[in-house]
Structure formats: C-alpha cells, structure tokens
Design brief:
Length: 539
C-alpha cells in the first residue's frame, strides 16, 4: 500500500506538491469567483494527498496598495484595521465553511512576509537589476497596474477605460524604481519553448508568448504617492509596488530567507492557480523576478476562466447579491464544491444559474449518486440484516463493473491529477456511478430476492457486494471533491473498521477489487443529497 500524505507531511527530504491560489485583495468580502479558484486548489491538493503525496496548499490575502487604502479611507478606518476585520470576519470563515484544507494562510502585512520582501528587493538592487527612472502612463487602480495605451477601451464620451474594470484609468507620473524586466524577454521565450506545459490552457499560453514576443518594458516596482505598502529599504520615500510584494508571498510563506530546509522542500510551486486576468503577472513578471535572483521557477501557471454574470466577469459590483453562503445554505457545501468544477470546463468562462445548479443537483447528485447509496444500504439491511454478504457467484456482469471502475480510476486520476481537467475527472467517476445504476436495474436484486434457493441467495449476495464495493471506490474517488459526503458514505458502508480512515485510502489502490470486508456493518446513514427546498422567490 502506498504511504499516505500524512506520513510524508513533515519529511523535509521529500519535495511537496505545492499549489497556490492568488492572494486575494481584501477590499471586500469574498465572492463566488474567489471561491471558485480556492475550491479548485483544494480539490487538486486533496487529490494529490489521496494519491499519497506530500502536499502544500497555500492561500492568503493581498493587503497593500492603493485599492485597499482607498477602501479603508472611505470606511473611516486605517488600512490595517480594515484588513484585520475582513480577514477574520469574512475570508477565513468562508474557507472554513467551504472545507478548504489550506496548510497556510499568508497575509502580506505579516512581518514574516514584509522583512523577506525587503531583503529580496534589496538583493536585486545590489545585483544591479533595479534602477531609478521616471514613468508616466495610464494606471488602473482596480488592477493595480499601468496599462499600455493600446490595452484601453473608450466609453461613448471617449473616456479611456480599463478593459477589465470598465472604469476610467488615472494618468500617473512618478519617479520610480524599475526592474529590468525587458532584459528577460529572450530567456522567458526560451523557457516557454522548453516547457510547453508551463502555461495552461493552450490559449493562455499563446497569449503570453505573443505578449512577450512584442518586447517587454521595464517594470516600475515602487510608488511614492502613497504610503500603504512595504518601504523600499534603501529609500523609504517609496513603497514596493503591490504586485511585486504580492507575488513574493509564494516564496516568503514557505520559508524564503528564513527556513532554508522548508523552502527547499516546498519551493517552487508545482501549480499556481490564477484567474486569467492575472496571468501575465504570474507567467511573465514572476518567473523573471525568480530568474533575476537565480531561484527556480514554478512548474505550471494554470489560468481559470471567469464566472460571469450577465455577460460580465463576476465582481463585487455585479454579483446580483449572490454570496457563496446563499448557495451553500440551499444546496449544501459539498454540492457547491462539486457544481462549479462539474459544470464549467476549467480554463473556460462559465455562468451560474439557479436552474442549472438545481437540475444537475437533482439528476446527478440526488438521483444518480445519492439514490444508489441509499438503495444499496437499504437492500443489504433488508435482505442480509445489514451484514455485507460475500460475492460467490460473480460472472461477466460483475467483471464489467470491475473494468468500469479501473477505467474510472485511471481516467479521473489522469484528468484531475495531471491535466487539471476537473470536469472530465468528475465525469469519469459519475459515468461509473451511472454504470452501477444500470447494473442494478438489469440485475433486479428485488426480484432475485424472491428466490431463496442457495443459488438465488448467492446471486443476490453477489449483486449487493458488487454494488457496495463499487460505492467504496466512489467514496474514495470523490473524497477530494465532496469530503463530507464521502465521509457519510464511508460510515454507511461500515468501511472504517476493516479499511481504516477514508483519507488514508490511496487512489492507486482504489480499483483493487474486493476490499470491503465481508460482514462489514452496512447501515442506512444520512441521506447524501436531501431534496431541495423551493428557492426563495427573491433569490
Ligand atoms: N491580489 C491579486 C492577486 C495577487 S496574487 C500574487 C488579485 N486579487 S483579486 O482578489 O482581485 O482576484 C484574484 C483572483 O480571484 C482572480 O485571479 C481569480 O483567480 C479569482 N476571481 C475573481 N473574480 C473571478 C471571477 N469572476 N471568476 C473566476 N475567478 C475570479 O488579483
């Protein structure tokens, strides 16, 4: 049996599979879009844990910069007070509510971060990678980014707008420090060429490659017109540009400059999950910063698409009032975790609708999956007093189920574990659930039950063992996506007594047939996916 992630977790001789989310701006409470990326990272890391790998999952908050400063001012509190309140009252509680199992939560106002950021920037300055210069250009505070004139759109009055926020840009003129980003274009192109999987999906990769091919400008890495940031160590009239500060979280959180053993056992990230709006920062600026410092660059930057509302990127201003909690209180946390990954191909944009969620919940979760679990438990209860019987009369139909399971395990592991195709991986498991439902419909155990000859009993036992053993594997495969549901199913199958904890079941072993011990106590546990109540009219 493969070693479990838990055993390897503290072992610094093993490099962790390190996944990060973007660190989110705390100018407001989290919304569906933030939760989308964070759930995806949680599923990915749970998947790798279930494989028996050592894993590190990092999330956190981006707390400096003009955007946060202005929000705090508008609310009559200091930026630090604003961040403290939102992190404690909104961000951390939501991740707990959604069962996000991050290993660390970094805040960019923490000393463990700010000290190391100063050291990193000082180092680059000492190496001659940073120089003083002037810059004037259109700046979007929403993006915290200077825009190229060609990137802007215009409204009907000819006012220049940020294409993402659709808000007017400000013309900033500053004397700043610059990082020699332009020097890294050729190295970056060489790197993309040698590592074709570095940027995912393909369309995102092409966009970045074309952008870099056009030639990079040097990057302004300081600001002197406001002070909510980390001071430039050699010139405290300037603060460090919020994006340079933020990107460094991926290093400072795992021991950069502080705990070398941990740093080497964790860094660089295997996967940076990002929204497609912040792809260039992660796929261009971040690797260039690391190259300049002689540090290893990440394995992959995976860009997810946007959750859309009314044809626009979902943001706090166009949420139409839907909070993650509004959905979880109606559909449950596990269904919420499942839905967005199931319904939207990762990398593409997608819209949310109550109708679509309701339809999929009812047909795929409640009817296909939930009913299968409750029918099987009920029949083992009714025909065998809740003690799992032995399969002594297996034939072709049972072999087909075993083959179907092997396919589901191999496919879901490749799709979720390797390709970040969450939708494809989930579908592979649900196809197997459908296959088991079909098997029961064909075998008609309720009819076989009427035959109490030894052959009839053996056949009935075989059908029910086959179905229960299939569910054992489904509980393991869906544990990363819907941990609470898998826990309930594990309990209902009486699996723990013979097989141990669900989290310790290696994925590589999931297709090995015959693991549920004969005699296991099967009980009709809680309904996995209760019937939905009528949604509120105003929702
Ligand atoms: N603070 C920066 C990131 C710094 S990382 C070193 C930032 N924060 S953000 O809060 O504005 O948004 C971050 C991420 O939230 C997006 O890139 C994306 O991953 C997620 N999303 C925010 N809105 C989203 C949608 N409407 N749809 C999908 N994801 C979205 O940018």
């Amino acid at each position: 049996m493969a070693a479990t992630g838990t055993e390897k977790q503290g072992d610094e001789s093993v490099k962790a599979f390190y996944v990060s989310t973007p660190i989110y701006y705390v100018n407001d409470a989290p919304h569906l879009g933030h939760a989308y990326t964070t759930v995806a990272g949680d599923v990915l890391t749970r998947w790798h844990r279930q494989r028996g790998e050592k894993v590190w999952y990092l999330t956190g908050t981006d707390e400096h910069g003009q955007k946060i400063m202005r929000t705090a001012e508008a609310n009559g509190v200091t930026p630090q007070e604003w961040c403290d309140k939102l992190v404690e009252e909104a961000w951390k509680p939501l991740w707990e509510h959604l069962d996000i199992g991050h290993d660390d939560f970094i805040r960019t106002t923490e000393k463990r971060h700010t000290d190391r950021v100063q050291e990193f920037v000082q180092d680059l300055y000492d190496k001659g990678e940073i120089y003083k210069g002037g810059y004037e250009g259109p700046y979007c505070v929403g993006c915290e980014e200077y825009k190229l004139p060609g990137d802007l759109i215009e409204d009907e009055q000819g006012v220049k707008l940020c294409p993402i926020h659709k808000k007017p840009v400000e013309i900033l003129k500053e004397e700043n420090y610059f990082f020699k980003l332009s020097a890294y274009g050729p190295k970056l192109l060489e790197f993309y060429e040698a590592n074709p999987d570095f940027i995912q999906p393909e369309s995102a990769r092409n966009e970045v490659v074309n952008f870099v091919k056009q030639g990079l400008q040097d990057l302004s890495i300081s600001r002197s017109t406001f002070d909510w940031g980390i001071p430039i160590p050699w010139d405290d009239k300037h603060v460090i540009y919020v994006w340079v500060d933020a990107l460094l979280n991926y290093a400072t959180a795992v021991g950069y400059g502080a705990d070398q053993a941990k740093f080497e056992a964790t860094f660089p990230a295997n996967v940076h999950l990002v929204g497609k709006d912040i792809l260039r920062f992660h796929a261009v600026i971040w690797p260039a910063m690391l190259m300049a410092q002689g540090l290893p660059v990440p394995g992959k930057v995976a860009a997810n698409g946007w959750l859309m509302v009314g044809g626009e990127k979902m943001s706090k201003s166009n949420l139409t009032g839907i909070k993650p909690q509004d959905l979880t209180s109606h559909f449950g946390v596990d269904a919420y975790r499942w839905y967005f990954l199931r319904a939207i191909a990762f990398g593409s944009d997608g819209s949310f609708s109550w109708e679509d969620f309701t339809a999929r919940y009812t047909s795929e979760l409640a009817n296909d999956y939930g009913n299968l679990a409750s029918r099987v438990a009920a029949m083992v209860g009714k025909y065998f007093d809740g003690a799992l019987p032995e399969a002594t009369a297996a034939g072709d139909a049972e072999q087909a189920i075993q083959d179907g399971l092997a396919k589901a395990v191999a496919e879901s592991d490749r799709k979720i574990g390797e390709e970040l195709d969450f939708q494809g991986g989930i579908l592979a498991v649900f196809d197997f659930v459908k296959q088991v439902n079909g098997y029961i419909t064909e075998q008609e155990p309720w009819k076989v039950a009427k035959d109490d000859s030894p052959e009839g009993r053996a056949r009935l036992a075989t059908i029910l063992y086959t179905a229960a053993e299939s569910l054992r594997a489904v509980a393991v495969l869906l544990n990363p996506v819907m941990p609470e549901t898998s826990r309930k199913l594990w309990e209902s199958l009486g699996a723990e007594a013979g097989l141990g904890a669900l989290a310790d079941q290696p994925l590589a072993d999931a297709a090995r047939w015959g693991q549920l011990p004969v005699g296991a106590t099967v009980t009709k546990g809680a309904v996995l996916f209760p019937r939905l109540e009528e949604p509120k009219k105003d929702a």
